[in-house]
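Study this protein:
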Amino acid sequence: MSNRIQILNENVINRIAAGEVVERPVSVVKELIENAIDAMATSIQLDIEDGGRKLIRVKDNGVGMGHDDAFLALERHATSKLRSEQDLIGIPTMGFRGEALASIASISRMRLITKDQFDEIGTSIISEGGTLTNSEPVAMTHGTVVEVRNIFFNTPVRRKYLKSALLESGHINDLFLKMALANPSIAFTSTDDGKTKVRTPAASSSKERVYSLFPKDVVENLVELEYRLDNSTLSGFIARPPFTRSSMRYIFTFVNSRPVKDRLVNASIIKAFSNLVERGRYPFAIVFIKTHPEEVDVNVHPQKAEVRFLRPGAISGLITRAVNEAIIGKVPSDSRSFGDWSKPTPFASGASRYVSKDGPREGSIDSYRIDRGPDTFFSQKETGPASAARLNRLRFSEFSILGKLPNSFIVLYDDDDMVVLDHHAAHERLIFNHLCKPDGQNQLRESQDLLAPQVVEFSALEAEALRENLEILHSAGFVVEEFGQNSFIIRSIPSWLEGTDLDDLFKSFVDTALETGLKTDPTILRNYIFKNMACKAAIKESSYVTTTEIRELLASLDATDGPTDVCPHGRPILVRISFDELRRRMGRK
């Protein structure tokens, strides 16, 4: 009878543990910075190369370790942060399981250099794949330096699944920003392939740290949060509506100074803003929750990225009340009141009164978009041969016009159906189809110089995302140049974008670039960004539209190449209701 069950050797155990602790380079950075914070460092420096795949170095001026402790630190489950099982309840430190260094060492070439205040000389230890290869004394001040090189060099399958250097750097820079936000009393510096990304000195308050890390347009819209409920407090900053972002990336949440991605916290913040921002937009928020360590479980995730609250209802209530109090009490004078934000659009009966028999009103959005925007180009007849898809599909111009409903809906009909057309979705599809044409056929990419070039500012991570994707903007007709470390100047824009909020457009562009960054195919990113640009530039809801403008829109849909059944985001452009169905519902059939 064979013995099939065996005790694994230490190297295999370490690599299994590394699978939980070290998912990618950002996991290494997180563990090392948390160790530096726990070591009471007042200065932390991070250096990475090739997105952390080639080098991750974290240097701190914390308490350091003595000679014997330095060797013990590389053993599994060796930690200075726990003494008994009881200590697992209410953990106040960032790291706590004693697996980080051993796990990191097992999948990299690592050097640990450290010294505490009691030793005259420091200790340098070099390991390769978890095996000690060298140790020697070194001269240094107290503190610790950990160098991690060639991550996953001995696990090629794991290394193969790492993303591009840009994307891995993006994850690391994002984490570093959160760590700096959570620990304002510590000076943080980071470099990426020799370029300084973040340099923020120790601050006296969270407010001072926030103001040093974010661009002017963000901080000018921030409102402070400060609220206490039972034994928990909430502090931080939220941006006043209508300042919003296109993704949840800019909701920063911290629980007892630990950056987390908590569904309860994020859902509560979004719920508090539900009547204040349009659908598909998200608030900018930096939220610090302080509660007793025994009120929150940090053991639910191997990387401590999630937490579980003992009383989730109390935390949700804390967030909702704090946000509402801040917004209601500090609404900017040029914004609508809280009541106006949540008031539904009044419904007016009689579709025909939304259709003007006159030309477009001067200064109206319809007048601007149709007479001076892309529709002027769209309404021109194409001279090239029509595609087979266009010949075989619906002819929009054959519909008769009945009227216009609120919310950008146009009512059409033919012999068989009543048709509701979404004006915004249709216009969005037209712009996207033309943006996707080859350069030689794309008149929408003609540039127009701005009378006053506009400067836009970003955080370090956002600036890197824009810098790496400038070519996409240039191909669309923008002329954009770097204008300082994290600033860019817009000199020219596509002529059809005149009147668009460029600051909002570029913020959305960066958000899209960061959100779709895991899709390394440049065509995918390009399409996502063109979708975003088309949505921003497309006509929004308006009170009146002329029959001439509707006819031009329908003719443009007939003339364009590419699909016309849905908008670029997949929403239907039109909905049909058959007259047979109407007769059935009316009891006539």
